[in-house]
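As a warm-up, study this chain.
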Amino acid sequence: MKNVRVAIEGLVGRITLARPEKKNALDRTTADELAEALFALSDSAATVVAIDADGTDFCAGADLAALEQMLDAPRQAHLDDAQALGHVFHTIRRMDKPVVALVRGRAFAGGAGLATACDIVLASEDARFAYPEVSIGFVPAMVMTMLRRCVGEKQAFDLVATGRVLSAEDAERLGLVSRVFPALEFDTRAEGFLKQLAQTPPPAMAATKTLFYKLDTLGFLDGITAGIVANADARSTQAFRDGVQRFTSRKKGNQ
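Now compare it with the structure written out below.
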């Protein structure tokens, strides 16, 4: 891989966008490598996956130089190119491990889309988020499916129609960001978060993530029914048995 690095540190799998000279802009190669990295970590011993970036910006969006070279390409070529990034978003959602974006600097356009696609977004206080595609006659197309779920219709349309830039604090207030950490503490705080999340029993995390996104397709009663099944299935796992026994043992010891 030339645009992405992959590493496993204990139980944390890490995917790093490695095009700082391009502000980690997304082209077809980068999208394909992201998908490849996600698949590799899906089958690894890692229990949580982090996506971060080299340089001062998380990702400034699509590689416009690469898009310029495609201006006269046939429509199928554009569909295939868009599909590559859509495949990344879909893969993140289907993985049974949590995927965490670590955002410093700018996450604009496709970069904001990549962060939005992740299950959790940790942002440095200096991070900035925007969906400015309309300003160049483009459409923030794939991200809207996720953005509407994060912030609701009115806020989502405001963001994609105006392209306004959000501070990390504003993004957290709207629901785009899970947690904001001080810039000087970001690395330490983010690593602590990842290590803690990685300790969650994998069967419980997988069942939680699967049900969480399955609820998108279900009505209220069907959602409750799916929850009943997931609840009962979880009780049959060794992780649940061990967790209950640890809790009751501690409680008895404190009496």
